[in-house]
Specification:
Largest sheet: 40 strands, parallel
Radius of gyration: 34 Å
Helix content: under 10%
Strand content: 35-45%
Distance between the termini: 123 Å
Shape: rod-shaped
């Protein structure tokens, strides 16, 4: 009786003049075994030495296609399918376009000299782990696609991993994958085009572009649906020499979490506008760079993250981060993170100067916003503290934060004239804003029309404008329902403007230092301010420049004990409090000292006015009180 293997060989011989290696394949698949063509000398199994492989390791692509697609041949295959290891697929493309395979297709550590066609194919499993796929033979016309799997349907998983290498683009456009898309330790070289196009794919499991995954060219997952996680930990995404982003995942829907973290690197930017993420967006210890002149290295506007977003623990952005109009279900954490613009960047060819230079020395970090989160909604707290470092402006204007805004220990630097280190006008914070111990701002901090449900804690914070006569803190028409603390080591070099601000508790300035460039007016400008509690300029408070409180309403006391008001060289008065209303007492005693006049003209005092301090006049024309 003829064996199953012999019958399959006889059937194949009707179409092919079979080689020994091809007969070996047919015997293995008929027996449900793997066809292993690996060499006993492990050094010769290195795919980079494939040009030295003997004919004993060669399989014609046409035979493999016949074995997959011929109905009569399929009768001889087992449920284990086709399993080939260490072979070189020669003489044409592996063309399985529109094929329907009811068995697994596994080709590990194989060499494909020409592209693989899987358009609209239906498979149980596609496993190309460890294999190399090229776009053309040597000397032939180049082909853009290494694997064309547009519209592919796979019942289980797709494995392009563990040493898989593609020279040319891979298209999974519109594919449906029942398990994981596993590309860990894969190398995708898009040859100046797309490395991986998986737009509009439906993946029931997770996508793994991790563990030394390396893409040269764009990876696109836009409009994809992922049932598990998108894991890019330790992945490298590079799109040099192009305006394109290295990783695009616009309008992606990820039921689990997205990991661009733990050694993740991008050179070319990441674009995930409109993404929906069911878990966390974790960029911890990720490096986001841009190889070109493009502005943003992370473009994530209008995203929805149901968990937290982490840009922390040595996260580094060398370019702008854009989060405007996004919603974060828990916290936004940016502790121990660096945001900066490159001082050296590459221009596109159309912008190359006449001398042919591709490199330009720049200072974009001084001119441009580095973190933009306008109208962001955060259900938890925002942490820009404990090692946060921004060399460029941070914009939280219109943000809605249900928890606290934590900036203590953070550095905000935007040093050019009229540039904002932190811009947060119209922000709503349900709890407390912390800009206290360790907080440093070089440039303007803007909090105008902000509403803070708790306190504004700036004790120990440092606010500095590089030109000391300009504003360091602008908080006009701000509402603070708790107290405002500019105290306990608070230091400002430049002006503070609190015009029309409403403070529900106290304005605490004890042990605060307010400095201003000489001959340039006031350090604290707070006309028409309303304070529900008391105002304290005490316990070592010092102002070098005028304090201006005209029209203020103070529900408690105006306390000026053990403090120094020093004339700035401009105007007659060092403390202007004309037409103020104080429902408690006004005290200028116990170490009060003013160099310059004190103006209380037209004021209303509900309690007593106690003046036992010292007023010195720099010029005899001044009024003392």
């Amino acid at each position: 009786m003829t064996s199953k293997a012999e019958a399959l060989i006889k059937l194949a011989a009707e179409t092919f003049e079979l080689t020994e290696s091809e007969q070996k394949l047919l015997r293995a698949v008929a027996a449900g075994k793997k066809a292993d063509f690996s060499d006993g000398n492990e050094a010769l199994n290195d795919l980079s030495t494939a040009d030295k492989w003997s004919a004993e390791r060669h399989l014609r692509a046409s035979l493999v296609v016949w074995l997959c697609a011929d109905k009569a041949a399929g009768e001889y295959l087992t449920h284990r399918g086709i399993r080939i290891i260490g072979a070189q697929i020669i003489e044409g493309e592996l063309d399985l376009q529109d094929a329907y395979l009811e068995f697994p297709l596994i080709l590990n550590r194989c060499i494909f000299l020409e592209p693989i066609q899987l358009t609209r194919a239906k498979l149980k499993v596609l496993n190309l782990a460890g294999s190399h796929v090229a776009t053309q033979r040597k000397g032939s016309t180049p082909t853009a696609l290494a694997i064309n799997a547009t519209g592919l349907q796979v019942e289980s998983g797709v494995f392009l991993c563990n040493g898989f290498h593609a020279t040319g683009s891979i298209s999974l456009l519109g594919a449906t994958i029942g398990g994981n898309l596993d590309c860990y330790k894969g190398c995708f070289d898009g040859q100046n085009g797309d490395a991986l196009n998986a737009q509009s794919t439906e993946i029931k499991g997770s996508v793994l572009l991790s563990d030394d995954f390396h893409a040269t060219g764009r990876v696109s997952l836009s409009s994809a649906t992922i049932g598990g996680n998108l894991d890019c930990k330790h992945g490298t995404f590079e799109h040099a020499g192009s305006k394109e982003y290295a990783l695009t995942a616009m309008n992606i829907d990820v039921e689990g979490s997205m990991f661009l973290s733990e050694g993740f690197k991008s050179m070319g930017g990441v674009k995930i506008n409109g993404a929906t993420i069911g878990g966390d967006l974790e960029c911890t210890n990720g490096i986001f760079g841009h190889s070109m002149y493009g502005k943003y290295v992370l473009l994530a506007g209008n995203i929805e993250v149901k968990g937290s977003m982490f840009l922390d623990k040595e996260f580094k952005a060398i370019g702008g981060v854009f989060l405007s109009n996004s919603t974060i279900g828990k916290d936004l954490v940016c502790n121990n993170a660096t945001f900066e613009y490159p001082t050296r960047f590459i221009l596109p060819p159309e912008m190359v100067t006449g001398n042919g230079s591709l490199f330009v020395e720049g200072v974009f970090h001084e001119k441009t916003l580095i973190l933009i989160a306008v109208n962001i909604e955060v259900k938890g707290s925002v942490h820009l503290c404990e090692g946060f470092n921004a060399k460029g402006g941070v914009n939280l204007s219109g943000a809605n934060i249900d928890g606290s805004l934590q900036c203590s220990g953070g550095t905000f630097e935007h040093s050019l004239h009229e540039n904002y280190a932190l811009q947060a006008s119209g922000m709503r914070v349900r709890r407390t804003v912390f800009m206290g111990s360790g907080f440093k701002a070089l440039g303007i901090v803007l909090l105008s029309e902000t509403v803070i449900g708790g306190s504004l804690q700036c004790g120990g914070g440092a606010f500095k404008h590089p030109q000391a006569q300009e504003h360091a803190l602008i908080a006009q028409a701000m509402e603070v329902r708790g107290s405002m603390h500019l105290s306990e080591g608070f230091n400002v070099i430049g002006r503070i403007s609190l015009n029309g601000t409403v403070i529900g508790g106290n304005l605490q300035c004890h042990r605060g230092t307010f400095e201003h460039a000489k001959n340039h007016g006031n350090t604290l400008n707070a006309p028409n301010i309303k304070v529900g509690g008391s105002v304290h300029f005490s316990k070592g408070f010092k102002s070098v420049g005028q304090v201006f409180l005209n029209g203020a309403i103070i529900g408690g006391d105006l306390n000026c004990k053990n403090c120094d008001f020093e004339w700035s060289g401009m105007g007659d008065f060092t403390l202007c409090a004309q037409d103020i209303e104080v429902k408690g007492n006004i005290t200028f005693d116990e170490g009060f000292k003013a160099i310059g006049g004190v103006l209380l003209y037209g004021s209303t005092i509900g309690g007593i006015l106690l003046c036992s301090g010292k007023i010195e006049l720099p010029e005899t024309k001044f009024y003392a009180l």
